[in-house]
Amino acid sequence: MSERLRMDGSVFVSFHSTERPQYDELVSPTLSACAEVGLVTESAAPPDTDTVTLSDRNRTAVYDGNRAVQLNFRIDGWDGPIDSVLNITTTANTLVSVDADPDDEYTGFARDLVALIRSLGVELDPIYVSTFNTHVEPTTPSPETVLPFEFPLDIERIPWLGVYSEPVIEQLGGREYVLETPAWKVEELENGNILIITTRTPWEGYHSKLPADEHLLGEADAERATADDESDGLSDPFATLDRGEIGADVCVYRDDISEQFRNEDLHLVRVRVDERGDLRRLEDGSFVRNVVEDDSGGKADVIGRMLDDSPDDTTRDEQMVSALLHESIPPSFVRLEEPDSQNVVTKVMDLDVKTDKHDLLVSLGRVAHLETFDEDEDLEMMCNALDKIADLEDIDGIERTLEEWLG
Fold first, then answer.
1. Which residues of 154-178 are buried (b: 16+ CB within 10 A; e: fewer)?
2. CA 21 from chain center: how many Å?
3. Partner of 31 for a Cys bridge, out of 47, 199, 241, 300, CB 3.0 to 4.6 A?
């Protein structure tokens, strides 16, 4: 485990639920728990619902001395079988003193953060709490390995610090088995949830599977390996574009990553491949994501490679990943001749329909991989068909309509 991973990046604590909470059920308990551990507002007052005003993105910050702790409440836009209702973010630098006796309890900010997680693990009664560091090194797994996209949980690693509810405990082998997890700290909370801290030093040895991973996910790993063999492949259509070429990507912000791509989370981004092979916005040259040359490994690994070399001035709010990594989507769908020209991707994104646009692009991609498909004539025909669909007032069965027009 490198010193760099331990001290760089940001610590991210995510509280997951299978039910959407009400404002008072989420914000007030969180601010009260912050006040109990000594976190204060910018004016040094204890945070509470009467003194704290959330931003238009339902965010606010509390402070431990000079350290800012960001609170991001997921009040609106909650969707799917499981989602994060609260995210806590702070810098990883000096999170834990590396000089203290490893058998001791935490001191300073680490003590307060763990106390806050422990308290909210009871007050909010989350189904699962995950933690990760946004700084990813080549030998370490990406943050997405601990994030759940469905329930029962389908995670690839046990987070450095996690909280597990009764349904998850049963999934992982039962209460007695989970309490026997080989980890630095295993603690049963007053509501029955179990807190596990794998190592005293955050992400120590995380480049390889830890004993806690083998204990709790051993069988799941075997099942996942079998499922991956049968799953659709991943491929970045921008990997074949040359430096300086332009294209249209469809991206989601990092915090909107989920198992399924919802239309409302998809963003059309016109990009140029820069001299490093990264994608930058045509409009202002700002960084969008890394192009994935190596598409080996699972979905989480590929997502990590889109994020693992972001410029230092790129904030988490700005980080995006592509929704166009399905192997069926060809480079011809994303390549643009001119900055304002159109292609299959832009035309699909311009459609005012409820049809899942990601799935539509995948379906069109499968058509493009047929032996009879001519990349010049049939690609133009596909674009013309999308134009006709855009002009329709009532669209029912969009894929069937395309199939008829494309023959």
1. bbbbbbbbbbbbeebbebbbeeeeb
2. 20
3. 47
What spatial distance separates the first Cα and last Cα of the chain, rounded to whole Å? 56
293-329 burial string, b = 16+ CB within 10 Å, else e? eeeebbbbbbbbbbbbebeeeeebeebbbbbbbbbbb
Q: Which residue has the tokens 């000079």?
A: 66
Round to whole Å and give the CA distance between 345 and 325: 13
pTM assigned to the model: 0.59
The pLDDT profile of the chain, 407 residues, written as one tens digit per residue, is 334 445 677 889 999 998 888 888 999 999 999 999 999 998 899 998 888 888 877 899 999 998 999 999 987 766 668 888 999 999 888 888 766 555 678 888 999 999 999 999 999 999 999 998 877 665 667 777 898 878 889 899 999 999 999 999 999 999 999 999 999 999 999 999 999 999 988 888 888 889 999 999 986 665 554 444 444 578 899 999 999 999 999 999 877 776 678 888 899 999 999 999 999 999 999 999 999 887 776 677 777 788 877 787 777 778 889 999 888 899 999 999 999 999 999 999 998 877 788 888 988 888 888 767 777 788 888 888 888 777 765 555 555 555 455 44
In one-letter notation, the amino acid at residue 151 is F
Tokens describing residue 272: 């140029």
- Which pair of tokens denotes residue 124? 């909010």
Closest among 224, 219, 172 to 196, alpha carbons compared: 172
Measured CA to CA in angstroms, residue 401 lies from 47, 83, 381, 382, 389 at distances of 56, 34, 13, 11, 8
Cα separation, 71 vs 291, in Å, equals 30
* Residues 138, 207 contacting (CB under 8 angstroms): no
The answer to whether 268 and 248 have CB atoms below 8 angstroms apart is yes
- CA atoms of 68 and 87, how far apart (whole Å): 14
Amino acid at 112: D
Q: What is the DSSP letter of 22?
A: P
In Å, how far from its chain's centre is CA 309? 16
Inter-axis angle of helices 23-36 and 108-123, nearest 10: 150
DSSP letters spanning 206-233: TTS--HHHHHHHHHHHHHHHHHHHHSPP
Q: CB count, 10 Å around CB of 194?
A: 21
Cα angle vertex 183, ends 179, 186, to 5°?
Answer: 40
